[in-house]
Acyl carrier protein
Amino acid sequence: PAPDRGRAAADDSFRRRFDEAGEAERPRLVLDLVREAVAAALGHRSPDEIESRRGFVAMGFDSLTAVETRNRISAKTGLRLPSTLMFDHPTPADLADHLAGQLTARDETPETDVLAELRKFEAMVAALPPEEAERIGIRKRLGSLLESFQHPVADTSLESAGLDDMFAIIDEELEEP
């Protein structure tokens, strides 16, 4: 099972199929994913053995199988999911509905270009060899970048300046060194 560290790394095959699927097909894809994860966690041979409306507790779930199933689903979807997921959504059908909503909401939230590039950067850094020298250089650059975000840039445009601001600008310009 995949570990749950922040935003999980998604298995591209499921995400690609979900993204390419029509709106009517998406709920079935998610339910199939849930049934596959449940079958694997419980040691069943086929997801066909998993009834969509049967409760997880009735199937024999405990906290360990719930976390294992959550991790499998998280690895496929890239969603960060709580450890109580299986108990908050007590059947495969309920869980699939919840996940489909989260996956669809993610698709409807526009990602800025900067965030998209950060996601790519994150993947590139994860793929780097463990040589410390290169990582130190990256850490220094990232530290400088983060430092620049600690102090927001003041808006000095004249359009947003009030009367007091205008007088302060004039005073600064007329001041002698």
Summary: The chain has two domains: 12-108, 111-150. Residues 111-150 form one domain. DSSP finds nine helices and no strands in the chain. Residues 1-9 have pLDDT under 50 and may be disordered.
